[in-house]
Amino acid sequence: MEPAVSLAVCALLFLLWVRVKGLEFVLIHQRWVFVCLFLLPLSLIFDIYYYVRAWVVFKLSSAPRLHEQRVRDIQKQVREWKEQGSKTFMCTGRPGWLTVSLRVGKYKKTHKNIMINLMDILEVDTKKQIVRVEPLVTMGQVTALLTSIGWTLPVLPELDDLTVVFFFILTGIESSSHKYGLFQHICTAYELVLADGSFVRCTPSENSDLFYAVPWSCGFFFFLVAAEIRIIPAKKYVIFFFEPVQGLEAICAKFTHDFFFQENHFVEGLLYSLDEAVIMTGVMTDEVEPSKVSQGVFFFRPRLGRHECGGTEPGLEYIPLRHYYHRHTRSIFWELQDIIPFGNNPIFRYLFGWMVPPKISLLKLTQGETLRKLYEQHHVVQDMLVPMKCLQQALHTFQNDIHVYPIWLCPFILPSQPGLVHPKGNEAELYIDIGAYGEPRVKHFEARSCMRQLEKFVRSVHGFQMLYADCYMNREEFWEMFDGSLYHKLREKLGCQDAFPEVYDKICKAARH
C-alpha cells in the first residue's frame, strides 16, 4: 500500500502545482514534466497498439483483401462531393495534429474531409524486389518487417512515425541518397484516386506525366491509395566510420571524396561550426569483429553525435542495421534536449530511454497557441537542398542568417527528370541537404526576415526548400524556386482547380495569413 499512497500523494501535489501555476505555464516553462509524466507513456501505448495491429494484419493477410474495398469507399466519397456541388476544396480527413509537419492544418476545418484509412503493407515481392504499401504505413512498420526477412529500402529516412505518403507527396532523404537519390526516386508506381473519383495507376512508362508530378505536390490533385517501392537485400550490420574534420575546405573536400567512393552505402555529416565537423560513412556487412560491435544507438547509450564526437581521432564500429537506420530517432536528431533538458543524462537513459522519443503528433496536439508562436519565432526546423558546388557559400549564409548548430549534412544525387524539382541542366547533379534544427543564435533573429533571406539565397543557386516546414516566399518567388509547368498543366487537364487548392496555398505562410 505504501508505494500506492506515495504515488497518490505525488499526483495530488502535481495537480495542486498545476492548479496554482496554471496549465499553460507548465506546458511552456516546465514542458518536460508534462512530457515525461503523460506523453512518453501515451507514446509507448500508441507504439504497442500499432505494432501489434500491423503484425496481426500482415500475418492474417487481411490488408490486400480489404484494400480494394477501402479504395472504392474513397472513390464513393469523392463522387458524393461532386454530386453535392463541389462547394469546397477536398483534403484528407486525417487530423492535422497527426502529421509530422510542424504546420497547423487549419484548412481541414473548411475543406471537405475525405477519410482515408489505409495504413498497411499489402505485399512484399522479393522476385520483383518491390514492396507495395498503403499511404499511411510508417517507416517503423517498413523497417521492422523488411529487416526481419532480409530486405530493406534503398532510401529509408529517419523517425519511425514518418509515413510513406509524407515522402511521396513531399520528399524524403537519407544517408544512402548519394547512391539512390531522394525517396521519390525509389518509387516505381503510384495508385491514385483523382478529382472525378476515377482510379489510375501511373509508372515511368504508363501515365508518366502524372507519375513525375506526384512528388512535392502535397497531394493537391489526387488522393494516394497505394505505391510500389524498390527493395534491396539487407545485411545484418553497418560498418560505421566516423572522422572529425577541421576547416571548411577540408570538410567540403571530404564530402566530395566520400560521395564518389563507390563502396560507401551511407554518407552524412554533423557540422558543429564552420571549422569543425564529423563525417560519417557506412558499409553494410554480415561479417563483424566482435570486439567492435557497438550498442551506440541503443536507448541506454549517449545520443549519436555526442558519442562519436568525443575525440579527435577517426573511429570504426559495427552497428546492427535497424539501429543504424534509426540512429537519430530517439533524440529526434538533437531536438530532444530542448524538450527534455536532461534527456542525455545516463540515469534518465537507463531508466526511461526505452520510452523516448515522445510522438511528434502528441507534442503538436498539446503545445497550445502560445507555445506554437514562441516556437515559431525562436526555433528553426528547415532543410534546404543546394548544389554541392555551392556548399561553402551556403554554410556561410546559414551562419549569417540563422546561426544554428549542429547542422545535418546529407549528400544526394538529383536526376534530371520532369516535375517540380530537378537540376538546372539536362544531367543529374550532386546536391546536399543542409538540415538546421534548433534555436537560432544570430543576434536579433526575426523568423520572417531571416528566413526570407535564406530562401532568397537558395533560389539564387537553384536550390529547393523542403515543404514540410514553413515557407515565407510569395507566390512568384515560390514558382521561381519550383518548376510548376507540369504541375499546372495536369491540374488544368484533370479539373483540379475546384477540387484541390494549389500547393502554394497550403505551404507558404503568406497565403495562409
TrEMBL record:
> Which molecular function GO terms apply here?
Delta24(24-1) sterol reductase activity; Delta24-sterol reductase activity; enzyme binding; FAD binding; peptide antigen binding
Q: What stretches pass through the bilayer?
A: 32-52, 210-227
Which keywords does the record carry?
A: Membrane, Oxidoreductase, Transmembrane, Transmembrane helix
Q: Does the keyword Ribonucleoprotein apply?
A: no
Give the subcellular location. Membrane
The source's superkingdom equals Eukaryota
Q: Which InterPro entries match?
A: Diminuto-like (IPR040165), FAD-bd_PCMH (IPR016166), FAD-bd_PCMH-like_sf (IPR036318), FAD-bd_PCMH_sub2 (IPR016169), Oxid_FAD_bind_N (IPR006094)
Provide the membrane topology annotation. Answer: Single-pass membrane protein
The residues covered by the FAD-binding PCMH-type domain are 58-234
Question: What PROSITE patterns does this protein map onto?
Answer: FAD_PCMH
The EC designation for this entry is 1.3.1.72
The reactions it catalyses are:
5alpha-cholest-8-en-3beta-ol + NADP(+) = zymosterol + NADPH + H(+); lanosterol + NADPH + H(+) = 24,25-dihydrolanosterol + NADP(+)
SUPFAM superfamilies in the record: FAD-binding/transporter-associated domain-like
Keyword Membrane part of the UniProt annotation: yes
Per the record, its GO cellular-component terms are: endoplasmic reticulum; membrane; nucleus
The cofactor named in the record is: FAD
Q: Which Gene Ontology terms describe the biological processes this protein takes part in? A: amyloid precursor protein catabolic process; cholesterol biosynthetic process via desmosterol; intracellular protein localization; male genitalia development; membrane organization; plasminogen activation; skin development; tissue development
What the entry lists under PANTHER family is as follows: 24-DEHYDROCHOLESTEROL REDUCTASE, DELTA(24)-STEROL REDUCTASE
Q: What is this protein called?
A: Delta(24)-sterol reductase
Source species of the chain: Cercocebus atys (Sooty mangabey)
